[in-house]
Amino acid sequence: MPLSQPVEHTPRWDTVTIVGMGMIGTSLGIELMRRGVAGQVIGVGRDPKKLHMAETMGACTSVSTSLPASVTDTQLVVVCTPVSRIVADVRQAAACCRHETLITDVGSTKAAIVAELDRGLPPAARFIGSHPLAGSEKTGPTAAMQNLFEGRTVVVTPGKATRPADAAQIAAFWKALGAKVTQMDPAEHDRVVAGSSHLPHLVSSALAAATPRECLPLVAGGWADTTRVAGGDPQLWTDILLENKDNVLASLATFETVLGRFRQALSHNDARALVEVLQEAKRIRDALGS
Amino acid sequence: MPLSQPVEHTPRWDTVTIVGMGMIGTSLGIELMRRGVAGQVIGVGRDPKKLHMAETMGACTSVSTSLPASVTDTQLVVVCTPVSRIVADVRQAAACCRHETLITDVGSTKAAIVAELDRGLPPAARFIGSHPLAGSEKTGPTAAMQNLFEGRTVVVTPGKATRPADAAQIAAFWKALGAKVTQMDPAEHDRVVAGSSHLPHLVSSALAAATPRECLPLVAGGWADTTRVAGGDPQLWTDILLENKDNVLASLATFETVLGRFRQALSHNDARALVEVLQEAKRIRDALGS
Question: pTM to 2 decimals?
Answer without folding.
Answer: 0.91
